[in-house]
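To assess whether ligand presence alters the predicted conformation, the chain was also submitted together with oxidized coenzyme A. Input:
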Amino acid sequence: MAKLEIKVPDIGDSSDVPVIELLVKVGDTVTREQSLIVLESEKATMEVPAPEAGVIRSLSIKVGDKVSKGTLIGEIETEAAAAAAPKVEPAAAKTPSPAPAGEPLAQAKTEDSRSELSQRRDGGAKSATAAPPSAPTQPSPASGGGQILEVKIPDIGDYQGVPVIEVLVKDGDTVTAEQALLVLETDKATMEVPSPGAGVVQGFRIKVGDKVSKGDVVCTLQGSSSGAKESAAPAASSPSPAPAGEGRDGGAKSATAAPSSAPTQPSTASGGGLSEETPQASSGKPGELPYAGPGTRKFARELGVDLTKVKGSGLRGRIVVEDVQGFVKQTLAQPAAVAAAPSGGSGIPPIPAVDFSLFGEIETTPLARIRKLSATHLHRAWVNIPHVTQTDDADITELEAFRKSASEETGTKLTLLPFVMKAVEKAMQAHPDFNTSLSPDGASLIKKKYLHIGFAADTPNGLVVPVVRDVDKKGIVQLANECAELASRARDGKLKPDEMKGGCFSISSLGGIGGSYFTPIVNAPEVAILGVSRGVMKPVWDGKAFQPRLMLPLSLSYDHRVIDGALGARFIVLLTRLLGDLRRLAL
Ligand code: CAO
């Protein structure tokens, strides 16, 4: 068993980088490469992994501390470390630890980077031949003045095939130097690739999900007069994560360095190889992108969570895994709330809650089940169906006289409802589009070869719609009896569920109560509903004089996806004729 010091590895030019998250505590058993802490510089979010598997014996830093290369993070007790200790020396040399051998390696690495980068820059600025594949840009003269820069994926260490998780620009976009073009994500780091200069994006060839490596062409930038130089300057001052790739190369070159060297590099450094003078893949918060670490991003992606909608609770609003979990819980809870709520959903802001007790005494009573169900049903129909309501008056003077005498003759109480029901049935036969439903995908019309009509019944527990079957096969007296019987059982709450299903059309009769026209809501998936109001005596001009006539206000609402205005008007005109002329109704 041996204790191994864990130190902050080479994090490029950055120093005093804040620790924003501790992912382990003393006593935790960790695996090799497991992330221990999260650092965040201006441009990079970096996770520092464990150099070996073992037990965390001490932690010397806390959230908010500022660390630089070589800062002691803590100690890990590991048998592997003890066994490997002699071999690891070169690895330690690669780490940013104060080990004497470490510095030369770290320096060499930095120098390598610089020399490679200056080559790139020289190549970019002076000649295309000098530009190696890793060069991010290849300026060439543009016909319209300025330069055409070929933007490539910069050195992202020895990582190959890094997934693109976000594309931030498209062809034709004008970008400024340093503006993020796309975001890459390794398992440990999120990196943005900024534009090497100002110009217009052309030939953008990367899409989300593509896997990219150093040197892959991203796009060209047209009209960039300052080109690579323009981008190089600001990059120089930006913190550049350590070149893990090279670090790993170093590890590979040195047999003794073995794997232990790599973990001491911040994993963000997988975006390494970045220099002060090149457009670089920088990790971390990319402009308007949600502020979250790679682990959180991965977690969010697995759940299909859009991080832009999640509020971060971490330091400076950083989104952490718990925020994503909370968002998912809240989202899952919403549909139930929306279904139960009288408003909300469909992107429509809900009606704000009001504390009515501020204005006087109140009493809150839970809604009856039927009322809650019909609220949901009506709301759904109102929101989903484009309603049109067409009104007209039917002259029922003769019908009313007949209704009264027939009631006496038959001994059956004949209200207006069965007459209206029969008239509706005849109008539906004439206009079969009223006896249809739209398929759920809205792509076809389902024609029904039966004709059942429901009627709205007002009950103490709320509105129900019993359905009279095969109206076309029944006479007025039978319809009157069935309506009375169904209405009576509806009021007593004794309707069977099946007796409220299968309707092709609905009638809502408020004539017994009063009022004139109204806007009935289509009883989906039916396509139309007739509102009947109270018949009143009105003076009607017969061409010679005003005559007192009993006029019945009718309000026909229909689904405009299925029934157009002309058909709606034809239907209601036919209905008034049928109700106005008993002979037609008898046909
Ligand atoms: N014009 C004038 N008088 C009318 C009339 C009309 N349009 N409709 C009914 N009447 C009269 C009836 O003839 C009856 O009078 P008498 O007792 O003198 O004969 C009286 O009003 C009561 O009739 P009714 O309403 O009890 O009977 P009905 O068959 O016409 O209606 C029913 C039955 C179940 C439809 C009705 O009782 C009912 O519940 N209506 C409310 C429907 C409703 O709430 N719709 C709204 C749905 S959307 O929220």
